[in-house]
Amino acid sequence: MSSQHDESPPDDLIRASPDLEAQTLPTEIEGLKPLAGSLSTQSVGETIEDEAFVLNFTWAGKPFQLELRGTDRVYDLKSAVQSETAVPPERQKYIGLVKGKLPGDECLVSQLGVPLKSKFVLVGTPEDKTFKDPHELNLSQFPDTSDNFDVAYGNGETAVAPADDPRNIRLITQKISECPINLINPPRPGKKLLVLDLDYTLVDSKPLLAGSLPPLECVRPTLHEFLEKAYEDYDIVIWSQTNYWWLESKLYECGIIGDETKRHKLLCVCDRKSMFPIFGQKNGQKYKHEVKPLSFLWQQPEFQGQW
């Protein structure tokens, strides 16, 4: 999928094989073997159509053009439209693309039944033109990440494992191109890689976001001792689903970076821009799951052959 101005939209950390095998985050330094989640996949039943679709649309009297692949999802269509127009997905209305209502986010572009070259009209109000009452924004908007590993990725006979999905492979390559790594410290020869989440893992995010406690009181007990011990054998990366500016400021406030007295360092930090959603089923229901594919790190040019 490509567009003229592509920004990826934005739950917890996915520890992955070089593609997308989901595992839980290690919480102890002794025997840092992650606990495997109950992830199940199904084999490919038939070839997924991956033809190129060129979609021309008008919005506010202006013409736009998008190119998507058959293995892209309706979610990717909405995200591409948002990057072009700043109209959020929940406010996008498509006229002339499909009959009736646009299918759910998990639907493949190849399943929309549209020609390879299509036209439609978009109706919707951009984000910056929409009034939001600050008093209506609360912490309940943050997703529940307590149980999102029991996911079956697939949809019947054409099910494909996340690691083999052409869309996911393409998005990883796209993210590597769009989201360069800003090294804080160079990788050390012979060290393994440890990727940690920040929110509700290293820090208690609820009082941190609310400002009800000082940042240093929101960190996990013995956090720095844990990081110092881990740093002996691992290069450490913090990967959060928040924006980079917020992530960097909280890392400083919590003393994770910027304190030269600490005997641990970070290799780099990653934010929500390098994440994307994959689709499957959970408890028989369609499920969209945001992931942090570690292949995004392993395939970086500066890290080739490091891990």
From TrEMBL:
Residue ranges of coiled coil: none
Organism domain of life: Eukaryota
Chain ranges of the Ubiquitin-like domain: 61-123
Pfam name, any one: NIF
Record GO biological process: regulation of proteasome assembly
GO annotation, cellular component aspect: nucleus
Domain (FCP1 homology) ranges: 187-307
GO molecular function annotations of the record: protein serine/threonine phosphatase activity
PROSITE patterns: FCP1 (PS50969), UBIQUITIN_2 (PS50053)
InterPro entries: FCP1_dom, HAD-like_sf, HAD_sf, Ubiquitin-like_dom, Ubiquitin-like_domsf, UBLCP1
Official protein name in the record: Nuclear proteasome inhibitor UBLCP1
Organism: Filobasidium floriforme
